[in-house]
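Observation: inputs received (chain + molybdate ion).
Thought: call the complex predictor directly.
Action: predict_structure
Action Input:
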Amino acid sequence: MTTGWAEARQAARDAAEPLETITVTLHEALGLALTEHLPALVPLPLCDTSAMDGYAVRGPGPWTIVGRRLAGPCSSAAALEPGQAFEIATGAPVPVGTEAVLPVELSIVDGAPGTHDAESPGRTVSGVLPAKNHIRRRGEDVPRGRRILQAGTVVTPAVLGLAASVGYDNLRVHRRPRVRVVVSGDELLTTGLPTLGQVRDAIGPLLPGLITAAGGELVDTQFAADRAGALSEALACDDVDVVAVCGSTSTGPADHLRPVLGAQKADILVDGVACRPGHPQLLATLPDGRHVVGLPGNPFAALAAGHTLLAPLLNGLAGRSPKAPLTGRLRGRIAARDRETRLVPAVRTDDALVPVGRDRAGSLWGAAMADVLAVVPPQWTGPEVEVLPL
Ligand SMILES: Nc1nc2c(c(=O)[nH]1)N[C@H]1C(S)=C(S)[C@@H](COP(=O)(O)OP(=O)(O)OC[C@H]3O[C@@H](n4cnc5c(N)ncnc54)[C@H](O)[C@@H]3O)O[C@H]1N2
Ligand code: MOO
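Observation:
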């Protein structure tokens, strides 16, 4: 029985148990999801540091310059007495007793505007201290031990930078779900110009990016002839978590996916989705726990199904926390359907989403021009819609 679009996505998510934990280097963690909350191993900053290039000072000026501290390891012994200053670089630990940092552009050294000068110790600096003391206190940005990121967070470039700055070399993450793509259809051609009766495979090329973005790892793409036996063979593998079958989802004489899944005693969790395009898509679980997603052969329908069932399934297996939906306002005359959700390619303008058209199930032209798929639910009257970034 056909499932509603939102329910189908939730069913795909619910079918996915997050995969095992692995420990990887920061570099290897990009795109994977944290398995545990991350506490800061050190405070940020580590100690009281200067926020400006200038002079760390104590008491009222003028101040005698007694030392110099640039970035890099340094002794903790340096201290200021009232009336003393240290030339200091942004980010360097301030000497004990520092009350403020006088920025270099506000400073006068021996009567001349201050500059960075290796000869400054022994000279006198003066200037009017600004209201801000320009000292970053220990732990002011991130206190030591504070939970900085939650389990389920996807590791982004910013997460890597933050994890490194609070002391991590490795992260514990869920492994990526391994995916095999099986493209079915005797008419398909993978290179060159098609002749009568042939069609260039458009789904094989679009899936790797979608799979990676959803947290999966494409193991390989295989081609299966339009025979039940070929599809059965392609499904008989134990080296992947998910098999995405393209084509063969309908009820025609060459469409064998449902009968083959029946013969393999698969549990069909979603048997068609009330959406356009993409309504024949399906989600099943094989007796050994592997998941099968059936993507319709019409290329735009396959893309829509990739976002409807495949991406939420991979997100869940990868251990990614669900995200609140993105929304936007759709402009123009869009005819909602009575019972089915429409997935409409649209571009973002300054103030709205504008459908681009060219969105028949067999054509990827609209989707290729679009920024998002706008989700138009049954009997929608607008203008707010959920959007799926492409
Ligand atoms: N009697 C009915 N026929 C169809 C229905 C229906 O409800 N009743 N639904 C239509 C819809 S909607 C879709 S979508 C397709 C789904 O068909 P299949 O998943 O079985 O796919 P095929 O029949 O193999 O192919 C359909 C179409 O797409 C082209 N195709 C297939 N694979 C690729 C590929 N990798 N790259 C590019 N194009 C591909 C294929 O040549 C066909 O033109 O069923 C409708 N029929
Ligand atoms: O699912 Mo079909 O794609 O509506 O064309």
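Thought: report the result.
Final Answer: The chain has a mean pLDDT of 95. The CA atoms of residues 372 and 390 lie 5 Å apart.
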